[in-house]
Amino acid sequence: MKLRVGPELMTLMQKAQRVYEVRYSDMAVKALNKARRVRPDLSGVDAGSTYKGQAIRLQLLPGQEPDQEYLRKVLKWYLDQHSYKVEPVPESDLIEGIDYTIKEIKD
């Protein structure tokens, strides 16, 4: 299925893809499954305009080809529930490629 998404929704999907390492198709399937279980009120969800957007190809499960507007709203609702903060990697004095030995500390 091809889905036309606007730039705002595409930005959210790209963030989720980078942080959670999930394909767009998997996002759509998870969003549809959660919306089927929870049955959210999507009347207040604005998926944004598709103007200046792009089309993405999704591989959905058999029988899971909803209306495009509904799918955009469900994706927006689903992605708004997640945090996209990347935790910084702690600094270390260790150097990659060097073997270290651990000494036992006796009290």
Please specify the SSE layout and strand pairing.
Layout: E1 2-5, H1 7-20, H2 24-38, E2 54-57, H3 68-79
Antiparallel strand pairs: 1-2
Characterize this entry briefly.
The chain has 107 residues and is mainly α. Helix content is 38%, strand content 7%.
What does this protein look like?
The chain has helices at 7-20, 24-38, 68-79, and strands at residues 2-5, 54-57. The chain is mainly alpha-helical and 107 residues long. The protein has a two-stranded antiparallel ribbon with strand order 1-2. The longest helix has 15 residues, at 24-38.
- Low-pLDDT windows of residues: none
| Average of the residue pLDDT scores | 86
Q: Count of helices?
A: 3
SSE run? EHHEH
Fraction in helix: 25-40%
Keywords for this entry:
mainly alpha; two-stranded antiparallel ribbon; 107 residues; elongated
